[in-house]
Structures are given as C-alpha cells and as structure tokens.
Amino acid sequence: MYSDSAFKEENIKLRFVKTRESLIYQQFKNAFVANLSIIDVMMFNSQAEIKVLLSQYDLIEGEN
After folding, report:
1. 60 Rama class: left (phi>0) / alpha (psi -120 to 50) / beta
2. pLDDT-based confidence at 47, cuts 50/70/90?
3. Which end of the chain is more exposed for a tag (fewer CB within 10 A), N or C?
4. Confidence of residue 49 (pLDDT cuts 50, 70, 90)
C-alpha cells in the first residue's frame, strides 16, 4: 500500500505506529477485541485514559 521509495524521493521518512500488546480497555462486557479504530478507543475511554493509551505504541521503520 505504501511505497517506501516514493516517500524517500520526497525526503519523507516512512514509519508506522504499532500498538503494544498491553493496550487493553473495557469494551462493553465482551471480550476485548484488539486493533480496532481510534473511534473505538474514544467510545470506551475518558480523555485522560485516551492520552495514556495513545502513548502506548512503538514506531516501526519502513523498508529501506
């Protein structure tokens, strides 16, 4: 989907956000479903909790 070479030509360093395995929050009373959208995070968490959750990620470098 992303061409690392196309970004490199424009001097843009391509990186991806990968959430950590520990990122879990309550979704109704069901089992947690990982890797949904930011909208799901916003539906089930307060602003303070969202700030904490958004800090739990690693940046993955694009292909070189």
Report:
1. beta
2. very high
3. N
4. very high
